[in-house]
Write a structure and sequence with these properties.
Elements (H helix, E strand, L loop, with lengths): L3 H46 L15 H11 L10 H17 L18 H9 L2 H11 L3 H32 L4 H10 L16 H14 L11 H4 L9 H26 L25 H28 L5 H29 L1
Length: 359
C-alpha cells in the first residue's frame, strides 16, 4: 500500500521531470526560432544600411524568408564529392550544430528560468562553444577540396588566437563575481556597488575593456565579418562550406546564427546584468534588487523580455559591424589577437585582481 510520503515523493519526482522537460522544450524552441529572427534582422538591417529593401516576398515584409530558405534547403539534393570522406563529411555539420544547441542549457534567460545552474556554468559555456570549430575543421578536411581545407585551417587558427582573450575576459568577470555560476554572476551584479557607495552597477562599467575584448573575440570565433576569413568568398570560393549542399549547408548557417544568439546571451549574463532592467532597479513582482528568486509570472516574463531585448541589441551590433568594416587579412587577424587583445586581456584581469584585493 502506497503511503502518503511515497505518494508525495512520486509527485515531486514527476513535477521535477515535468519542469525540466518543459524547460528543455522551451530552450529548444528558442534555439530554432530566435536564430531565424536574428537572420531576418540581419537581412533587413543590412538592406536598410545599404539603401535596399531586403526580402519582401515570403511572408509579411519578408518575415518568412529564412523559413522559405529552410524548405528550399530540405528539397535540394544532398551531394557528396566522390573523393570526400563520406562519414566525416556527413558528421561535420551535426558536430558543429549540437554544441551551439547545448550551450542554451545553462543560459539563465529569466528569474528561475534555466535548465541547469551549474557551479562551473561559465566553464561549461566556454568549453562547449569551442567544440563547433571541430565540425568546421572536419568539414573542410573531409571535402577533399583545397579551398575547403584552407577554410577549415583558418577557422582552427582563429579559434586558437581568439579563445585566449575570450577566456581571459570571462575569467576577469568570474574573479569579480567570485563564482563560475552564471546565475551567481547575475546576482553579483544586482548587489555590486560603486566604490562602497549605494550606487549599483553592472560589470560592463568597471570592465568596459573586458566587454569590448569579449565582443570582438566572440565575433572572431563565430567567423562573423570582418573576421570571416574561413569563408572569404573572394579568396576561397565559400571556404569550408564550398562542397556542402541542402540540409547540411543549412545546418552550418543555423550554427552561425545560433552562435550569435548564445554568445550575445553570454555577454548579457556576464556584463549587462542579465534580466535586470537597469542597475539597482528590481523587476516588478520580484523580491530583492534585480529579482533573482521569488518572481511571479509577470515579473519572470518581463525579465525574459529584458534579456531578449539585450540579446537582440548585441546581435544588431554584430550585423552593424558586418556592414561597416571590410574583411581583415589573415596576418592582420593574428597580429590583432596576439599583439593587442591578449596583452589587454591580461591587463584587464590584473586590474580586476588588484581591485578585488584593495576594495
Amino acid at each position: 500500500m502506497t503511503t502518503v510520503a511515497q505518494t508525495a515523493s512520486i509527485l515531486t519526482l514527476d513535477n521535477f521531470w515535468l519542469s525540466v522537460g518543459l524547460k528543455i522544450v522551451v530552450v529548444l524552441g528558442l534555439f530554432f526560432v530566435v536564430p531565424l529572427v536574428v537572420g531576418y534582422m540581419e537581412h533587413k538591417v543590412m538592406a536598410h544600411q545599404q539603401d535596399r529593401i531586403g526580402p519582401m516576398e515570403a511572408g509579411p515584409h519578408g518575415t518568412l524568408q529564412l523559413v522559405a530558405d529552410g524548405i528550399k534547403f530540405i528539397q535540394k539534393e544532398d551531394i557528396i564529392p566522390s573523393a570526400a570522406d563520406r562519414k566525416v563529411f556527413a558528421l561535420a555539420p551535426g558536430l558543429a550544430l549540437v554544441p551551439a544547441m547545448l550551450i542554451f542549457l545553462v543560459l539563465p534567460l529569466a528569474p528561475s528560468f534555466w535548465v541547469e545552474d551549474l557551479e562551473l556554468g561559465l566553464f561549461y559555456a566556454l568549453a562547449i562553444s569551442s567544440v563547433s570549430v571541430l565540425g568546421i575543421l572536419m568539414g573542410g578536411w573531409a571535402s577533399a577540396n583545397k579551398f575547403s581545407l584552407f577554410g577549415g585551417i583558418r577557422a582552427a587558427a582563429q579559434l586558437i588566437a581568439y579563445e585566449l582573450p575570450l577566456i581571459l575576459a570571462a575569467a576577469a568577470v568570474a574573479l569579480q563575481a567570485e563564482s563560475l555560476s552564471l546565475v551567481d554572476i547575475i546576482e553579483a551584479q544586482a548587489t555590486m556597488s560603486l566604490l562602497g557607495t549605494d550606487v549599483n552597477m553592472w560589470f560592463v562599467f568597471p570592465q568596459a575593456l573586458g566587454f569590448a575584448i569579449f565582443f570582438v573575440a566572440a565575433m572572431a570565433e563565430l567567423n562573423r565579418p570582418p573576421f570571416d576569413m574561413p569563408i572569404a568568398d573572394s579568396e576561397l570560393v565559400f571556404g569550408f562550406m564550398t562542397e556542402y549542399t541542402g540540409i547540411k549547408f543549412a545546418m552550418f548557417l543555423l550554427t552561425e546564427y545560433a552562435g550569435m544568439v548564445s554568445m550575445s546571451a553570454l555577454m548579457v549574463v556576464l556584463y549587462l546584468g542579465g534580466w535586470q532592467i537597469a542597475p539597482g532597479v528590481p523587476l516588478p513582482g520580484c523580491d530583492g534588487a534585480g529579482g533573482i528568486f521569488g518572481c511571479d509570472f509577470i515579473g519572470a516574463a518581463i525579465g525574459f523580455g529584458v534579456t531578449m531585448g539585450k540579446i537582440f541589441f548585441l546581435t544588431f551590433l554584430m550585423v552593424w559591424a558586418r556592414v561597416t568594416y571590410p574583411r581583415l587579412r589573415e596576418d592582420q587577424l593574428q597580429k590583432m589577437s596576439w599583439l593587442v587583445f591578449v596583452p589587454l586581456a591580461l591587463l584587464n584581469i590584473a586590474v580586476v585582481a588588484v581591485g578585488k584585493v584593495f576594495a
